[in-house]
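Section 5.1 Outputs to date
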Amino acid sequence: MTIATPIKTVAKPARNQRRSIAELLAPLEQIAANSPNLVANHDANFEVNGENYRLPRYLFVGPRGGDTPIRLGIFAGIHGDEPEGVHALVQFIKLLEAKPELAAGYYLSFYPVCNSTGFEDGTRFSRTGKDLNREFWKNSSEPEVCLLQAELQSRSFQGLISLHTDDTSDGFYGFVGGPTLTKNLIKPALAAAEKFLPRDERRVIDGFNACHGVIRDCYDGILSAPPKLRPRPFEIILETPAAPPEYLKELAFAAALQTILLEYSKFIAYAPNL
């Protein structure tokens, strides 16, 4: 499979300033204003310490590829000090706009900045001091978590993909959950990412047992499907090491995402014959 590459790297704001979400998302807003494929949604608003914020949401509608579109949710920036996934999603959406056939048969819901205040401040936690990725399905009052939970409950996602960065790892790896088919998605995704970054082959990663870069356990309270939801969507968390150059991390994420889209569409096409 030939991996299409992102179009242009997004420059990171200066460390001594708040990162600008408006500047980050400006290319997507421009695309959405003129594109038949990308739709921006601006009605998920909340307030933190008297400042108004919104949960950025974008829907990319791929070319028709079957009777029923495949609905995936793709998330980044739940930890504000992990901008790699945020920038990678912006670049990936730009790539899809240039090559919409990569998303044939899909409705892709993108959430590029899940922790707006943490992203602005460059901190893991939100401005209220919470690690939002430990707050899900725990009756949290954090507005970002409440908004994301509403999305997870209402969108009927068949799969969830989250992008993260690990500053303790030298390689790319992933967490998996949900249906058994998930292993058939993560393995080729890691192989695709490995063309740009090495894989983390440690037997224990982030405190969890791992096998060739795949981890089947995870922390409690992470961004995930509603606990009682049946059938369960596939759930994949992609983790890039922090040290490599930005463009390599973006390429690795893009390659993994493209591969998951391709492999899952194949599974859906073959499923009636299984």
